[in-house]
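Minutes, project check-in
Item: structure for the 122-residue chain
Input as provided by the requester:
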Amino acid sequence: MKKLLTLFLMLFLQNSVQVFALEPQKTLNLHSGNVYVMSIDSRPKSIEVTNPAVVEVTSTSDSFTQTGQLVFNTLQEGISYVTYKHGRNNFSSTIKVLVDNHQAVDASVIELDIIKDVTKDK
């Protein structure tokens, strides 16, 4: 009986510890000169970008839901880290953005069409 109780407690503790484990940091592979949207579970606040020459990041959300989106405008190839706060307790999350035209675009983002300036082509 003691062995069964000990086994149950060990399994319970392992499962409860896994609930509080931090999720691994996300890496996004994107192409330069495009705009991408990534949905997140809560509204992003205080966005910080380590290398604004590589990527510009803004956020969008609406009044009716708690979800939000991050909008990535990629400027040139390189690496940048995007840190934002979210949730009621202002949890901090970091995304590594790798802008590389030779890698496939990450499947978790949606690519938006850009209206190109036709006057530059003339």
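Outcome recorded: The chain has one helix and eight strands.
No further action items on this chain.
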